[in-house]
Design brief:
Layout: H1 12-34, H2 37-47, H3 51-67, H4 69-79, H5 81-101, H6 105-133, H7 138-151, H8 157-167, H9 169-188, H10 216-220, H11 223-252, E1 259-262, E2 265-268, H12 269-295, H13 297-318, H14 322-336, H15 339-351, H16 356-371, H17 374-384, H18 386-432
Antiparallel strand pairs: 1-2
Length: about 425
């Protein structure tokens, strides 16, 4: 077997092939997060564990998926992407097979942890590999890869919903789990890292990129990392709450099965919303990544986060109208998913290429931190209604938009320019000595 460190073609066509395979792998793990909402009520109907208890499995999945990524990313940076993605494919298949037999919360939670480990291995590897292959188009490459995760569930939402209705949720878990894991396992054999470091290209002033490769310990000691982490948590919290709770919200609004017709397509509001959400989410990730390559990361964040706040505000006021529910959630996810392209690209720009997988993995743990608020949404909704949850999400997104433009932008520029100036000064001192 050819090792990951053997000679690898550096042609433009080969790196695009690597990107495409990464996108497909990401699509295969998408249902672990975005298809979950379809299973919540069927599981509750069978075992009566309660939504909050069942949603704890979702939190465990996201926490495990994200917080272990730095460890998995270290293996990628050291041994290459193939073995890590292969391991991920096995774990995601095992997780949904366990879900299909889960007759206790303990087993459900164990499956969530197994799935999180597998999904994190695939996610962190594919995004990190994209950052290494495309230093000149980080926003687009990270966005396209993340789009696989965002839109991957779009083509399977209806089949999963139909299978749940026809043969039960256990059958859906078993069939799709086995298929998704097998595809990831096969593709893992063909993933490669670039054998020659591809340097970042200095661009316009609005898109500063460091020439220095910062090690993970150096990154953890930098204040800009923690400010970026905070903003990531604030935005991710709202999106994860909405993704996990969209089915319960639609049912509580009494519109889940209301027919909605748009451009000749007609289906139940909830199914339409989830399908359209995944399409918009998938499109938004590469689109905003591409935009950020041109107007800057922080300006793009401000536009996206502000739009997200506006859409949630619309949902809180007019969400009981089926077509508004479908369109508002679609636009919301279209601007929410960009955090998974903008933050990896910003991390690569700020901290360099050599340790890009690990550094981005550390930043990605913010998603796990945000997931801790998902069960809280169920508790708040039960006590104060969904309006209270919407108010929290609007506040988080609006604050994040302001922080991106007025805090992250100047801090990041100062970090990059300051460290480069210090490095050049030390180099000159050495030459003089």
């Amino acid at each position: 077997m050819v090792s990951d460190t053997d000679a690898t073609p550096q042609s433009s066509g080969f790196r695009w092939l690597q990107l495409v395979m990464g996108i497909v792998c990401m699509a295969m793990i998408a249902n672990l997060q975005y298809g979950w909402t379809l299973f919540v009520d069927p599981i509750d109907a069978k075992y009566h564990w309660g939504r909050a208890a069942i949603q704890l499995a979702f939190t465990l999945f996201v926490v495990t998926e994200t917080w272990l990524v730095p460890v998995e990313a270290w293996f990628v940076d050291k041994y290459g992407p193939r073995i890590v993605v292969m391991f991920g494919g096995i774990m995601i298949a095992l997780a949904w097979l366990m879900n299909s037999y889960a007759d206790s919360l303990v087993l459900l939670y164990a499956a969530a942890i197994v799935g999180g480990i597998g999904a994190g291995a695939v996610y962190g590897t594919c995004v990190g590999n994209a950052l290494k292959w495309f230093p000149d188009r980080r926003g687009l490459a990270a966005g396209a890869t993340a789009a696989g995760f965002g839109a991957g569930a779009a083509i399977t939402v209806v089949p999963i919903a139909n299978m749940i209705a026809a043969t039960g949720y256990q059958s859906a878990f078993f069939t799709f789990g086995l298929g998704q894991g097998l595809i990831v396992f096969i593709l893992s054999f063909f993933l490669r890292p670039p054998t020659v470091a591809m340097p970042a290209k200095k661009k316009q002033l609005h898109l500063p990129q460091t020439k220095i490769d910062f090690t993970p310990p150096q990154v953890l000691r930098s204040p800009i990392f923690w400010v970026m982490y905070l903003v990531f948590v604030m935005v991710a919290a709202g999106g994860l709450m909405t993704a996990a709770q969209i089915a319960p919200i639609a049912k509580d609004f009494k519109i889940a099965n209301e027919p909605v017709g748009i451009l000749g397509f007609q289906m139940a509001a909830l199914t339409f919303a989830i399908s359209l959400d995944r399409i918009f989410d998938g499109f938004g990730r590469p689109f905003f990544g591409w935009v950020s390559d041109r107007i800057g990361r922080e300006h793009t964040m401000f536009i996206a986060f502000s739009t997200a706040a506006l859409m949630v505000l619309t949902l809180s006021v007019y969400g009981h109208i089926p077509i508004v529910f479908v369109l508002a959630t679609a636009v919301y996810f279209g601007v929410f998913g960009e955090i998974y392209s903008l933050f990896p690209a910003t991390s690569g720009d700020t901290f360099g290429v050599k340790f890009a997988t690990t550094n981005n993995g550390m930043l990605y743990t913010a998603k796990g931190t945000a997931s801790l608020l998902v069960p809280l949404a169920s508790i708040v909704a039960a006590s104060y209604g969904w309006q209270a949850v919407f108010v929290i999400v609007v506040a988080l997104n609006a604050t994040a938009a302001l922080l991106a433009l007025f805090v992250i932008k100047p801090m990041r520029r100062a970090f990059i320019l300051g460290n480069e100036a210090a490095t050049e000064a030390r180099t000159q001192d050495v030459r003089i000595a």
